[in-house]
Every structure is written in C-alpha cells, then in structure tokens.
Amino acid sequence: MTIRPILIHPDPRLKKPAAPVGEITDEIRTLASDMLETMYDAPGIGLAAPQVGAMVRLLVMDCVKEEGAEPRPMTLVDPEIIWRSEELSTYEEGCLSIPEQYADVERPSTVEVRWTTLDGTQATERFEGLWATCVQHEIDHLDGKLFIDYLRPMRRQMITRRMVKLKREQARA
Are 84 and 111 in contact (CB under 8 A)? Predict the structure, then answer.
C-alpha cells in the first residue's frame, strides 16, 4: 500500500468529471487500497480518486469516528445516487483537497446509492447522517464539483485565494 499525494485546489483535475471504471482490475484494487491508506493517514473520512490524480469514478470512505469502534472501510466503484430524501441536513464540511477550510453545506439527509464492489458485484445501501453527507461529497468530486461550489462567490473566492497561497508556500518549502 502506498500513500499517494492529495491534489490541492485549485487544480484543474479536481474540476473534471471522472470516467467510469467499468471492469475491476488489479490496478483498480491497488488504487482503492492506496486511497484507503491515504485517507486514514490524512486523516479523513472520504477520498475520491480524482483527489489523488486518478480520473476514474472510485471513492473510499469510513465515517466510523467513535473511539474503539470497528472501522468500516468502504470502496464504491462507479457509484450513483438512485434516491434522495426531501429532508435536508446541514453539516460543516471540509475536504482533504482544501485543507483547514470548513463551511456549512446543506444536502439531502438520506440517500440511496448503488455501486460496484471490488469483487464485481452490485451493491445498494441507504446512507444517513454523516455517511450520507460524505458519500454525496465524494460523488460530487467524481462529477468535478467541490463543496465550496455550494458557497457564495465571495466566500468561494476567499478560500480559493487561501489555497493558492498555501500551494505557493508548499512549493517554496
């Protein structure tokens, strides 16, 4: 397993829709394993393939946060939301590609998602609470959308300027 570098906004790859995975190969399994390792190391609760420069529709997540609770790493290949609740909920979201920046984002409180597992079978699950927010956030990444795209233009521009400054500082280091 390899920890992969996480792209930092603004990076044009973060704004491009990812291609369907289609066939599950050893390369895809390795990518998923590396992404879980990268996500846990960051630390984060979700990571989409475009965030590590792989332009395919693959995401990993594990929203178990309780101390001592068993982790629940999930890999979703070619996920799609097939149902959304009308009820909304607001969570303060952050993003590994936009470090140290957080904002409230309103999304459906429950979603049903269908995806392909790493063994090639179809899976469907209804997600609520933090899991629902996380899976929607990561699927947005696969569509080239960032959580800051839900914010007002001034706030989005301010965060983008901070990220440009951060990237300049990292390039100097």
Answer: yes
**Mean pLDDT of the 143-148 span:** 98
Residues known to be catalytic: 138
The highest-level CATH class for domain 12-172 is alpha beta
Q: Which amino acid is at 71?
A: P
Dihedral over Cα of 74, 80, 82, 87: its sign: positive
Which residue blocks in 23-152 are alpha helix, DSSP H?
26-41, 129-142
Closest CA relative to residue 59, chosen from 136, 147, 148, 145: 136
Query: Residues 38, 40, 42, CA angle at the centre, nearest 5°?
Result: 65
- pLDDT above 90 for 14: yes
> What are the tens digits of pLDDT across the range 113-124?
999 999 999 999
**What does the pLDDT average to over 97-117?**
97
- Its sign, for the CA torsion 113, 100, 53, 30, is negative
* Confidence band for 106, pLDDT divided at 50, 70 and 90: very high
Whole-angstrom distance between the N-terminal and C-terminal Cα of the chain?
26
Return d(Cα 69, Cα 67) in angstroms, integer: 6
